[in-house]
């Protein structure tokens, strides 16, 4: 009888010490990099929810997380608006849809397109200092992800990379980042404050566009020359949501263009400071910013090209730039008209 109990305790100890599933190299589908010097992760067939990608597989260093390698393919997210009508998703191969955390090893340089697409339970992912680019749609639909740290070697964040990461509250950008793609952080409605690095020279269409409560404060770097179309717009102001909650914007020196709809429907915006370098304001740039009272204009800024909106071949005004901004103070209206604005508020 004693031997029976002894064996039972040994079995129990084995169960406690050994997990139900153990991760191994064979859990990852792989290929060689184009230059044959490293490994590309092409899929994951293991059963763990929290995974650590090996630094080496079969003796080769892991250098890339391949396209759709760790993607989950369930219900698709609505991307029509963010993608300007283009179909941007396609079917993938990975079955595991329950990833909660992923540790990427040092040495990985590329996170590919759709790499973690739609992993809605993913709460944690480290991006090592070796990574240089994050591909299109890489983390789109990772609706449980809360924090992302972008290391200094990353020069490009691809189009829609973090689209619809609805719980993403903190993004730390590093100096060295050059480009943020179209819709990269669109519909990240938990993201309230952003500070863009001075190294950033290109910000994409609708980069921080939101359908619901969004950004409250943005600090621009010195490297941008334009605020792109719909970059901070709130696109659905009639369903009871508050919209992008930016209250004050200081547009830095060096900006020459404010794009179409750049701050469309920013209902909380009360003041805007324009730079002396500004040359163009595109249609609808501040349309329906209903709390806007003051636009601060430097004395050195004497004229701006308020681009005209065309409809069916007809010019319909100077872009309706401030249509719906009914609280603009008279002094602000006068100053804007001296710059070339047509004065239309409705």
Quick summary:
The chain is mostly beta strands and 346 residues long.
How large is the count of helical segments?
Answer: 2
Measured on Cα atoms, how large is the radius of gyration?
25 Å
Class computed from helices, strands and strand pairing: mainly beta
pLDDT < 50 runs, ≥5 residues: 4-21, 75-95, 237-241
| Helix amount | under 10%
Determine the mean pLDDT: 85
Structural shape: elongated
| Strand content range | 15-25%
Q: Could you give a short account of the major beta sheet? A: 9 strands, mixed
- Quantity of strands, as a count: 25
H/E element order: HEEEEEEEEEEEEEEEEEEEEEEEEEH
How would you name the oligomeric state of the polypeptide chains in this document?
single chain
| Distance from first to last alpha carbon | 91 Å
What distinguishing features does this structure have?
four-stranded parallel sheet; 8% helix; single chain; 346 residues; nine-stranded mixed sheet; elongated; mainly beta
